[in-house]
Design a protein that fits this description.
16 helices; Sugar isomerase (chains A, B, C, D); TIM Barrel; globular; 9% strand; alpha/beta; 11 strands; homotetramer; Xyl_isomerase-like_sf (chains A, B, C, D); isomerase (chains A, B, C, D)
């Protein structure tokens, strides 16, 4: 299924007057509105291929319908999202679930939707049918060098798939950990991981990045071998200039100050990318901004400030990706909600009066500093984000149009009731 | 597979001298040792049928071998455990996974292993193939009365299965909750749950108990409709004298003082039962006592004190059950470790000098109170627990004997490599 | 110091045009804007007398200047706040710090600022110079009946002071708890507390309420005798119809769903009042809405929904109070920021389309339910809150006017550099 | 007050038979018992000068009696502890609270009790009376270079005091942080801290160490500028070989795996020292081992393993210090309980069968690994720790003797009821 230009235009024309009123109002208050819109238009958030199907918990999964049954349909799904919001112009693949049969054909298909291939992701947290050795006790950190070698080779394969598709980064999320005291020698597990990553790093093309993700717990419940940003940074530093830390919002201990971590990683030149989602308790993988929207804004506030301080391009300086699980809501709609929340947070961060904030900080004027951030956050920028979409030919109300066109129903018609997407 | 009396005796005779030395030493320090042994012998911990297979997380499952493929084999597994430690004399079934084809035959089989049927458990957190309406948005709390009715009927069916097997309690763990603000009207969800439970309660035989379990989060990530002990107690109080709260150690927010909750529920006459496991981060479902053994002791300390204050029989006054998930270790060995940890904690709680503690509390002598508990906890009672096993004809070293006899290998021979147990 | 009507009018006239533009824009979108403004005008948040001075931590206190040195100056401070925002029309006193020498004179002074006396607060978490017995090991829960009696008598004295001033409620925040396992018998501590509260309750005038506050930890670090809403509700239920639970936002374990607690307490008719603040880690007592503004909105969403369902008057149905600690910011400005955040959250909760939300919930349309709440939260209602102030004769920009008039400088001139307020 | 040799001997002779029975029993099971005793005898835990008085919370302090009123009396107190257990042979001073008037005399006094001077501690979290600039908004991270300079100079002064007393390390616990989003530019705060620490580092004698402590929160409630081990390690690495991370058990987010942190810091050669205490919720500063004794053992397990792997001397390789707050118990008795818990955990860690554990890890035999650690932890080594004391001329039962001799009563007689120790 592909959205027609006319469908979008028709939708937009109905909402045009209402939008114009709101946009005109807010524009008048924001001298730099054009610059913000410009940046919003350039900002693209990659959609992970595994988020297009219904997710579940260890207690079960309540499947949806019309889910994409193969890589082509996944690309089609992201194409739909991108047509609706023009902010989802990339897809992040998961190997071995998304191995393209014909890379050129796959690229052409993606290209027809205006999509790029973002970071490729390896999987050593599950055993595959044809796999020789098990990852039950870990992969890159494993005590057995043969298992490590197998896992290294898998990552090299993933890089090769990525090269064929035009990806420029490998994301390594390592589930390796332990569930009981005594199970691991922490140091050896760390050293094994480092050695394995070095081998993978050696196969990285010149213009690629290696993203080292960390996670506090789950699927192991006593220790994770790359458990926090400190451990990830240590590894990335030892690996070299192409290695970076990747931050997933749900991968922290309770109450962690993620925005400070982001700031310090940028300071060290070692922040590589981002996985957006939201959570209340653990790695809940909920819609971005659905639980703690102010935190999302504060993180973007640090991102914008820190990237500007280093002269980084917002759109390309870091890898931006959603990593959520859609257990209850239609995955496509859920993703539209996530992208919307991210764009609003980014727009608000762009609106922050940096000079005034710096001045307040210089004077320890905490009241003023708080006011600057809160007043910005309280400013309703939905019309600005919508305007960026409008100018790009996307829908003023992506979810509204999704519903009007009964997109899911049509996908069910095309794909059937019982298709199940690979994924989490 | 059944253990022979001679196998156990032979095993015990090899360890007899070492055991006698340790037991004699500790007995001399404990005047009431015979009373403690007596209570340990009476204390039985039910094994849940779903814990006999390898568990997993949402990221996957690394299956084991020789797992029980049907109810009979599950009973056989618990029979093996009970033969090894004589402390696992009950099995807790999960419906619909464990519906007996012929209840009388099933009872006879269990009886041949010396096993009783503990609380039966209903399942409304997953959809079954033949099920008419989905539990995706909950069951007993559902906005749709037809879904509630279906879930109520399922619980009534479970009661009926339990009656046929001689169970005396129904455990309702309700996964019902929400993952996003706005999804639920909390009050209506609570009221619907109450009405549904009332209907179930009405079908409860006179001598049965209804256990209302609570859980802070997972599988829903914003709210759980029975989320803490306060909500469970509210429901149990409104339901009537046969309704009780069930405490699962892993179902709390970080840092919760579970022993205080236990004490207050006992005070109210509303503590019904216990699910043992251990955890560091969330509902990790690890081996009992593997992470916080002192907490396990402190909980037993409150249980013993509180049950004695009400004149309750330790063995029968509450429902005792393990509820753990065995993702990495052999489930049977893991269960042996859990039972051992529970028995040690119980033995230590029996050893606490109640009068001295009360005296210290009366004098606000905190140093003394702490010393009493810590000195008891530091006392090595493994030989006392072993003595209780010895007298009951169980193994001095259950895991040692499990390994000596290569029990799992034999089960694999009997059942094959690829059997997979239903369960979590 | 008293603000003159002209000072405010002059301030408002400068901002009038800007305000009008924003208010006109938003009013057009909100048919019920007049009803919302009306409710905002009626809504008053009590200021605690102990929040008017600089707070500290156990590591120290960095005092401010010009702090109120006596009860009269505290009333004057709240009078200033109320003149600035017309939303702080009550003061909550702390005994023994604020014992009025002459109740009639004190009432007259408060009256001259348009202030009422909200709930009075007792203090049994510190020893006073003249006190006979120590509260080191607790007060109402103490093992020694003489200590309990002393603490009961103190609470009765507090009630009597409150009667003289026209208060209608007593708030009991009980620091009683324990820091080490074994220190307390939880049941006896609870029973002692209940008996003590019964005696206090017996002295409560007919038209008074007793607020039973709970707190998870601090100043004790193992258990708190009234540690969560379940324990508070249990006490309030046993005490009788005049006893209620009071919720302080900072008094929970990490990740607690406070809005659900609020909803259930309202359902039970047992929610009595609220202490507003914000926190990231513990009972941080930060400015309301400064860390988790969306949570504040969600709580108000439940409050409005639940009070409406019971036909309660928003302004008088519950006790509304700030309970924050101002360690770094000027207490008066900090309080203005808290009140502003509370009013915005309340306004947004009033704006939620209840029928649409109920409809979405009825259909399990989670996307829609989330959208309703988030769209409301993203709507900028600052101009509506400002309009309510404007109509009441308060300042369009209270903090702006506070700064323009250099209020603190003038207070320093009047009171001196080294005055220190009693309090936390 | 000084304990006489005869008092201890008399006490020990009464307990000799009981002790001998327990020690003989356990020794028979432990071939390496002499080596363990030897290491226990060498192991000394420094007592912080600020822990000798009653501590408090922001809600107040319930003072004790007979507290040390000056540095000499603090040394006397530690001398008493050391006489009782011969494991507290060092004192850690806090400047400016403990500035010696005459360093030589102070050293001689300490020497007469067999005490060394451990790390000296600076204080920039409070303002002192004579201080020019305030630390309200931080010290080493302050935006104002003049404040930073003042704080640097204070640390240099502390080093100089330490040199005079024979200390070999400076502990910098930096309270610097922020309580509100926007208050700080995280990067600049970090860079300012680094620059300040560099100046301090430059004044460090050749044979000194600089300990960089971290803390997750409190006294600031949004961010701490040195908030976790990652930030501390980053600073220590940039500073140079004399800079190390110091771990305080209470300074982590909920559920942190501290033993893993310890292991990795040792791996990096950057673990400098330890502050022992225990906690359930936050930085509760409770008696070591009073809440999570198994965690304390697991930490020592990593310390012993990691130090042995680097060939470090256990007694001198790291700085060992208690950092607890004694709000309820007699500080001296509380410290005796802490030291006892630490020595037991250390003894158990020494008992772990390293080869068997390594073998189990190599085979992914998780059951065995868990058993090795738990069996060791369940082994009662109190008699071994007591034997180490006995051989050193200390008391078999230090708290028993403290009570027999009514030490506190005698101190009250000497010092009076109302002395108050400086400290936390």
């Amino acid at each position: 299924m592909r959205l027609e230009k006319e469908q979008i235009e028709q939708h937009n024309s109905k909402l045009a007057a209402k939008h114009k009123r709101a946009f005109d109002f807010i524009s008048e208050d924001i001298p730099q509105v054009e610059s913000i819109i410009n940046k919003l238009q350039q900002f693209q958030i990659a959609i992970p291929s595994w988020a297009l199907g219904t997710g579940g918990t260890r207690f079960g999964r309540f499947s949806g319908k019309g889910e994409p049954g193969n890589l082509e349909q996944k690309i089609e799904d992201v194409g739909l999202l991108h047509a609706l919001n023009r902010s989802s112009g990339a897809i992040s693949l998961h190997i071995p679930w998304d191995i393209p049969k014909d890379a050129e054909q796959t690229k052409a298909l993606a290209d027809s939707f205006g999509l790029q291939f973002d970071a490729v992701n390896s999987n050593t947290f599950q055993d595959q049918a044809e796999q020789e050795l098990s990852y039950k006790y870990g992969s890159l950190h494993h005590v057995d060098p043969k298992v490590r070698k197998q896992a290294v080779q898998h990552n090299i394969d993933v890089i090769n798939h990525g090269i064929a598709l035009g990806s420029k980064a490998l994301t390594v999320w390592l589930a390796d950990g332990s569930s009981f005291p005594g199970q691991l020698n922490f140091r050896e597990a760390f050293q094994n991981t480092l050695e394995s990553l070095k081998e993978i790093y050696a196969h990285l093309p010149e213009d690629w990045k290696l993203f080292v993700e960390y996670k506090a717990f789950e699927p192991y419940f006593y220790s994770m071998t790359i458990g926090d940003w400190g451990q990830s940074l240590l590894l990335a530093s030892k690996l070299g200039p192409k290695a970076y830390t990747l931050v997933d919002l749900g991968h922290h201990l309770p109450n962690a100050n993620i925005e400070q971590i982001v700031s310090l990683l940028l300071m060290e030149g070692k922040l590589g990318g981002f996985h957006f989602n939201d959570s209340k308790y653990a790695d809940d993988d909920l819609t971005a901004g659905s639980i703690k929207p102010y935190q999302l804004f504060l993180i973007f506030n640090e991102l914008v400030e820190g990237m500007d301080a280093r002269g980084m391009d917002h759109a390309t300086g870091l890898g931006w990706m959603i990593d959520a699980s859609h257990n209850l809501k239609d995955p496509l709609v859920d993703l539209l909600q996530s992208v919307e929340a991210i764009m609003i947070a980014y727009a608000q961060a762009l609106l922050v009066d940096r000079n005034a904030l710096k001045e307040a900080q210089r004077n320890n004027d905490i009241v003023k500093a708080q006011q600057i951030l809160q007043d910005t956050f309280r400013t309703d920028l939905r019309a600005v984000v919508a305007e960026a979409r409008l100018r790009d030919g996307a829908a003023l109300d992506p979810i509204g149009l999704f519903n009007e066109l009964a997109v899911r129903d049509q996908l069910i018609k095309e794909r059937g009731n019982n298709t199940v997407a690979t994924g989490l």
